């Protein structure tokens, strides 16, 4: 191993296509004596395929603290350890973050080996041009909690990235449309890097019907990207809110429009017109 040791190597593994395993990831998984894996039975064939004779340690969400102690013992004994999850990058909607935190607290080096990640793969091929995106991962499964989260996320000026499993895809897409608005665009990225890879973009209001029209499109693993809300819509809403507040305080139309312009930067003429109609409706 050309890498420094002892250290914890956080290694991304393929989402479905073995060709996505980087050369560096292969080298590390062959060189380390220990691999901490989310599911040892799932990862054993990958290690065999690579010709790695590393021994496996279970490191899943129910034993992460104990697994961290085991990893720290290996590092203390001078051994390098690799951390992998079932697919993609460990600690991204996967176990690993707590283990990494403990190893860092114990003073050992943690070295990331970047590679496949479903969110990044989906974004890169989505055509979403929003400069900022927010990775949410899995939404709550309970309706009320999911609605609370989506209500908070709705005005955020970012593209929103969700993970979803096939048995909840219809319910989740319906919730996204209901809470974020039918006009926002969604990109449904399914089975990335696999045989039935599909990337489909449409308005949220059409997404459920598209999925329902073909049961095959409801199978597999999903990344859902909801594009950022139209910036102008948001600004209009804010300017309208400020204008209404000023009119409600009894300010004359002209002065309310002038102040709303100074506060929000929205166009003065449009604010004046809006103020006239709001005053007429008062
Ligand atoms: N750590 C992984 C990563 O780096 O993307 C994510 C693990 S998370 C437990 C599994 C979820 O990731 C799936 O339910 C799905 O939402 C998404 N995912 C994983 N593989 C995928 C693929 N090939 N195509 C689309 N989404 C995928």
From TrEMBL:
UniProt xrefs under InterPro entries: 4pyrrol_Mease, 4pyrrol_Methylase_sf, 4pyrrole_Mease_sub1, 4pyrrole_Mease_sub2, rRNA_ssu_MeTfrase_I, RsmI_HTH, SAM_MeTrfase_RsmI_CS
Ranges of residues in domain Tetrapyrrole methylase: 8-207
Subcellular location, principal: cytoplasm
Domain RsmI HTH stretches: 234-279
Swiss-Prot/TrEMBL keywords: Cytoplasm, Methyltransferase, rRNA processing, S-adenosyl-L-methionine, Transferase
Gene Ontology terms, MF aspect: rRNA (cytosine-2'-O-)-methyltransferase activity
Catalyses which reaction(s): cytidine(1402) in 16S rRNA + S-adenosyl-L-methionine = 2'-O-methylcytidine(1402) in 16S rRNA + S-adenosyl-L-homocysteine + H(+)
EC number of this enzyme: 2.1.1.198
SUPFAM superfamilies documented for this protein: Tetrapyrrole methylase (SSF53790)
Top EC class of this enzyme: transferase
Pfam families: RsmI_C (PF23016), TP_methylase (PF00590)
Similarity annotation: Belongs to the methyltransferase superfamily. RsmI family.
Function: Catalyzes the 2'-O-methylation of the ribose of cytidine 1402 (C1402) in 16S rRNA.
Protein name: Ribosomal RNA small subunit methyltransferase I
